[in-house]
Amino acid sequence: MAERVQKVLAQAGYGSRREIESWIEQGRIEINGQPAKLGDRVEAEDEIRLNGKPVRRTLDLAPRRILLYNKPEGEICSRNDPEGRPTVFDKLPPVKNGRWIVVGRLDINSSGLILFTTDGELANRLMHPSYEIEREYAVRVLGEFSDEARRQLRAGVQLDDGPARFDDIVDGGGQGVNHWYYVLLHEGRNREVRRLFEQVGVTVNRLIRTRFGNLFLPRRVPQGKWQELGEKDINNVLKLVGMDEALPKPPRARKKTVRKKQAKKKTARQQGR
Known about the structure:
Blueprint: E1 3-4, H1 5-11, H2 17-25, E2 29-31, E3 34-35, E4 41-42, E5 48-50, E6 53-54, E7 66-71, E8 101-103, E9 111-117, H3 120-127, E10 135-142, H4 147-155, E11 157-159, E12 162-164, E13 168-173, E14 178-185, H5 192-199, E15 203-212, E16 215-216, E17 226-228, H6 231-240, H7 254-272
Parallel strand pairs: 9-15
Antiparallel strand pairs: 1-4, 2-3, 2-5, 5-6, 7-9, 7-17, 8-9, 10-14, 10-15, 11-12, 13-14, 15-16
């Protein structure tokens, strides 16, 4: 069955659909020797090339993997930075036959939960507005925040890229001029949380994402560290976006493999005595 070329490449782990569509517009993808166009579909026998290199469709049989990453402030969400700033990709484990795709970007001054996956189709669904995936943030603001301002932000305000609102705002306490709030929304537009508060004259001086969909920021994962999801948690994420098809199980953590080897060596030494 013919499928859109961006879907095929996303399922193979080359990137999100949005990224791949931009590559098509840049002329980086060919189908049977001809430049691909948005909307092109491919069959199993069609040859796809990315940057002149053949696409290996066997990649879509690779294990689907998901990481939770606790982003610290000061890191950017791009793979490379001309200014040499650290990126969220610097500390991630290597991927065989694929690459990590970031889900739920945060600006350089924000911290907290970011997801990574090797499945481009999954990344696309988690980020697409039509799936309305919840994002929850802990926000520390400077200055007064009136009940009227809170009502405004829940009712909706006009930003430069369209209307936006919080689905919920909960008081988190605080002392002095700083105060914490927990906010919930179903979108992931650029700096949306900060811009919403700015619209009612309130400045955000700290922002931490604590939840993305049904995944929470683990307390045991410090900033700058990651945790890989097991099969059960991966299946829960798939159900969230209507993807129930199974792929091979992710490989066991390297530490367990090393421990097994060490145990075998120890047993061999004991038997040799």
